[in-house]
Amino acid sequence: LEGTVATIWWCGCKHPSASLAHELLHIQLQLNGYRRIRVGISNIASPETIKRLMDCIDNEIQHHKIYPVFISMGFTPEQFYRDSDAEVEQFLRQAVGNGFTSVADASIVFFSLIAPGGTLTDAAKEDIRNQLNTIDGGKYESALDGILRAISDWTQSQSSDAREYIKQVLLAIHPIENLTWYGFASSARPPSGDGVFVDLEFSVMEP
Questions:
Q1: 195: exposed, middle or buried (Cβ count in 10 Å: 0-12, 13-18, 19+)
Q2: Of 14, 23, 26, which Cα lies nearest the Cα of 83?
Q3: In 3D, which of 149, 123, 150, 144 has the Cα closest to residue 132?
Q4: HEC profile for the chain?
Q5: Are 129 and 20 in contact (CB under 8 A)?
Q6: What's the pLDDT score for residue 84?
Q7: Whether the Cβ atoms of residue 15 and residue 78 lie closer than 8 Å to each other
Q8: pLDDT at residue 2, rounded to an integer
Q9: Residues in contact with 89: Cβ distance below 8 Å, sequence separation at least 6, in sequence order
Q10: Cis geometry, peptide bond prior to residue 191 (ω within 30 degrees of 0)
Q11: Residue 106 Cα distances to 97, 102, 133, 140, 152, angstroms
Q12: Which of 44, 17, 37, 7 lies closest to 202 in space, CA to CA?
């Protein structure tokens, strides 16, 4: 959704009605007050990882809010994502097996693990989560627990404004000296641009 114009890209799939409903629910959430993350600047990981993390949070946090509505419309859990979701268990097991370079990197995979709906069974989720918690002596467990609490709070809230919950997620990933800002326009920059400081405030120099 850009201003008053919504664009939905489509391709052939097994459940076109479910796919259209999924995208329309994204638009409805944004019309109800959710503001998409368009840019992120942070010291908690490399710029490439921050781009992936912000895109992940923006998409997945919406999924947690719209999924119950999707199910109430008569669709089934496995219809919530694209057809390739059938391969998500293989992807997750491989990612966990390879390990991670940062908490942010682990968090991106974790969002796929806790995503609502889909084809992944509860037993598989529990098994993969247990494996994730053993990596590097449980290095990521506390951060991932914090993410889960933030998502639970967001899902249970009646608001479509996710700013406070996104802050909770990012502080769970990096709770100390977190220099993170995200904006609602791709051209926005801190400190005066339209966006949110997660913890400490800072400014950036324009090239």
A1: buried
A2: 14
A3: 144
A4: CECCECCCCCCCCCCHHHHHHHHHHHHHHHHCCCCCCCEEEECCCCHHHHHHHHHHHHHHHHHHHHHHHHHHCCCCHHHCCCHHHHHHHHHHHHHHHHCCCCHHHHHHHHHHHCCCCCCCCHHHHHHHHHHHHHHHHCCCHHHHHHHHHHHHHHHHCCCCCCHHHHHHHHHHHCCCCCCEEEECCCCCCCCCCCEEECCCCCCCCCC
A5: no
A6: 87
A7: no
A8: 83
A9: 119, 120, 124, 128
A10: yes
A11: 11, 6, 10, 7, 19
A12: 44
| pLDDT, tens digit (0-9, with 9 covering 90-100), for 145-181 | 999 999 999 999 999 999 999 999 999 999 999 999 9
- Beta bridge partners, 40, equal 182
In 3D, which of 29, 22, 28 has the Cα closest to residue 78? 22
Residue 12 is predicted with a pLDDT of: 86
Q: What are phi and psi of 42, to 5 degrees?
A: -160, 155
Q: Which two tokens stand for residue 191?
A: 């400190």
- The Cα–Cα gap between 128 and 99 comes to 12
